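Why do we care about 3D structure at all? Because function follows from shape, and shape follows, mostly, from sequence. That is the central idea of this module. The next example makes it concrete: a single protein chain, its amino acid sequence, and then its structure expressed as tokens.
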Amino acid sequence: MSKTPRVLVIIGHPISDSLNHSIARTYIDSFADTAQVDVIDLAQETPAVQPQRAQLSARSGREHLRTDQQKNMALIENADHIVWVFPQWWGLYPGVMKSFIDETFLSGFGFDYSDKFPKGLLSGKTGRIISTMDAPPLWNALWYRNAVGASLKRALMRYVGIRPVGATYFSPVRTSTPQKREKWLAMVAQLARKDAKRLGLEAAHNTDTQVEKAPAGV
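And the structure:
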């Protein structure tokens, strides 16, 4: 009997009643009970902004790391598919998400330097980006050079062996109408169905998926 796929949704917004949380819930609800969906909500966690040196390496094991570091590493390790949901602030992601990345994807867990070149240790997983922003897409591409996409897709996911399968940016949030935000949530449900099909769960979804009312603001 094949194992049930595991999906991990990482919410990178520090405020719990955000549009990003509505996006995450829509994505999660679209899977119903067909996959095990775990959540790391950074509005409920406090990654160390100034970690101790020992907390930034897993080369000698994980016993010395904080309990939440070990828990989050286990969730990432067990996931088949990882979804990042976050707002774009100042061309990147919020500080809480940067702190989470810094203290989680450590040497000895996400990558290894034992050979001449670094080796990703999380291969076999896929990743998706769903982000909100106020910058127009063209401005984000030409002026910011899609810095957030380069950071997550190249510097992080590909580096540790996770294969990106898509990036979706909803913009502009500040001037969006309730109808526009509901359309975005419907698109998120479609992305979840697409991911479910790729994970072998194509029978899990239908076109009648309901989406919740999306709050204003990022």
